[in-house]
Specification:
Blueprint (H helix, E strand, L loop, with lengths): L1 H15 L3 H11 L10 E5 L5 H7 L7 E6 L2 H7 L8 E5 L12 E7 L8 H11 E12 L5 H23 L4 H11 L3 H10 L3 E8 L4 E7 L1
Parallel strand pairs: 1-2, 1-4, 2-3, 4-5
Antiparallel strand pairs: 5-7, 6-7
Helix pairs in contact: 1-4, 1-6, 2-3, 6-7
The chain binds S-adenosylmethionine (SAM).
S-adenosylmethionine binds next to helix 1 and helix 3.
C-alpha cells in the first residue's frame, strides 16, 4: 500500500494536515536529545520518504549519520536527496527484524510508523534492541482529540472528508480509509506509553500535539 501511494505521499501529508506535519516532525527531533551526541548514529524507522530523517540530518550542529529504514523501497527512493548531503543513508528493512547489531544506535525516531506494525510489541522490542543503553526513542503518532466540540469536528474531517480527498489525489482505493481506521483501533497515548515500558524503555513520557490530533512519545533505553 505504501509503495503504491509513494508518489503522492508527501503532497497529501502536507495538504491533509495543512502543513502542520512539519511542526510535528520538528517537535519530535527537539525531543531526541541528539545534541548530547551530535556526531552519533541515529535510526529513523518506518522512515517513508525520509522527512523525519531529513529534519534531524539538517539540524545546525548535527554532524552525525541518520539511517532511514523502511520496507517500502519506493518510499525511500522518493526521499533520496533530502537533508544534508551524505547525512542520510536509506536501508530497505523490516522494522520487526532490523538488520543492525544490538546497541548500535545513539537514538531513534519513528514518525507515524508504529501504528502500521503487524506486531507492535515486537517492533518496540526490536527498537529497544538496536539502541545503546541511555539512548532515546521518540515516537510520533496520530491519536484522537478528546475535547468534545473539537473531537466532533475532527472526526467528521478525519473519517468523512480526508478519505475522499486522499482517494482523489492518490488514486488508491483504500489507503486513506485505512488511515482513520488504523488510528481508531490503535492504543491511546497512555496505553502506548505503557507498551513502551513493557518493551524495555524507562522514563517514558508523552505530550499531545495540536489539540490531541497527534502525540509525541519518548522513552530511554
Ligand atoms: C505513514 S508512513 C510514515 C512515513 C514517515 N515516517 C513520515 O513521517 O512521513 C508509514 C511507513 O511505515 C512503513 N512501515 C510499515 N510497517 C513497516 C515495517 N514492518 N517495516 C518497515 N517499514 C514499515 C511503511 O512502508 C511507510 O513508509
Amino acid at each position: 500500500m505504501f509503495s503504491a501511494i509513494a508518489p503522492r505521499y508527501d503532497l497529501l501529508n502536507h495538504l491533509l494536515s495543512l502543513g502542520i506535519d512539519r511542526r510535528w516532525r520538528r517537535a519530535a527531533v527537539d525531543r531526541l536529545a541528539w545534541d548530547a551526541r551530535p556526531r552519533g548514529l541515529y535510526l529513523d524507522a518506518c522512515a517513508g520518504t525520509l522527512d523525519l530523517a531529513a529534519e534531524l540530518a539538517g539540524r545546525r550542529g548535527f554532524s552525525g549519520r541518520v539511517v532511514g529504514a523502511d520496507f517500502a523501497a519506493p518510499m525511500l527512493k522518493l526521499g533520496a536527496g533530502k537533508g544534508r548531503p551524505g547525512g542520510i543513508r536509506s536501508v530497505a528493512a523490516d522494522s520487526l527484524e532490523l538488520p543492525f547489531p544490538s546497541g548500535c544506535f545513539d537514538g531513534a525516531t519513528v514518525g507515524f510508523g508504529v501504528r502500521n506494525l503487524a506486531d507492535l510489541g515486537a517492533g518496540l522490542a526490536e527498537l529497544a534492541r538496536v539502541l545503546r543503553p541511555g539512548a532515546r526513542l521518540v515516537v510520533l503518532e496520530f491519536t484522537t482529540p478528546v475535547w468534545p466540540p473539537f473531537r466532533a469536528l475532527y472526526l467528521f474531517y478525519f473519517h468523512r472528508l480526508l478519505p475522499l480527498i486522499g482517494r482523489a489525489v492518490s488514486r488508491h482505493p483504500t489507503a486513506y480509509s485505512y488511515l482513520p481506521a488504523s488510528v481508531s483501533t490503535f492504543p491511546a497515548p497512555d496505553a502506548l506509553r505503557e507498551r513502551l515500558g513493557q518493551a524495555g524503555f524507562r522514563d517514558c513520557g508523552c505530550r499531545l500535539l495540536t489539540g490531541g490530533i497527534a502525540a509525541l512519545h519518548w522513552g530511554t533505553r
